[in-house]
Amino acid sequence: MSKRPPKQPITAAATTKASQPASASDTSTKEKTPRDTKQERVLAMLRSAAGATIPTIMKLTEWQQHSVRGFLAGVVKKKLKLKIKSEKIGNHRVYRIVEHASTRSKTARSRPRAA
Question: How far is CA 39 from CA 8, 19, 36, 60, in A?
Answer without folding.
Answer: 40, 35, 8, 10
